[in-house]
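Pasting as-is:
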Amino acid sequence: MEDLEDSAKEELKRADHLIYVTLKYTRTSEVIKNTIKRLISAFDYSILEVLEYLKHKKKIKVVPTITKLRAELLQGLLPETKYYIEFYFLLKQIDKAELKKKEEYRKNVALIAFDRKGMPLEINIDTLKKYYDKTHEFIEIIDEITR
């Protein structure tokens, strides 16, 4: 379980570096997309960590292999994670959405994701920092639970 915790924190460190160093100098939408992938990966490791912990404590019998089922199971077991799991699903939706670039190589670089209904969602540097903070909060909550 410690490996999973370390993996989640490592992904968060990589995302931090992408936001505060790489994005600062490159200003490309590809860096925004890669950061979102890192945040999703950090969520995946944390969700797996807490479910393994709950399995060890005999609260659940089996940990699902599909990430969506894991997240839904966690949401059902721990209601305090509902907000974060919904946010996780938003990140996954952004990752799979049709994407468009805006002002690449400029100060206001952004990635525009279109949802299934065709509604645009703009992810700029400030939005990405908020996403990072929410992911960090979730990992801290999971750390508290698994201690």
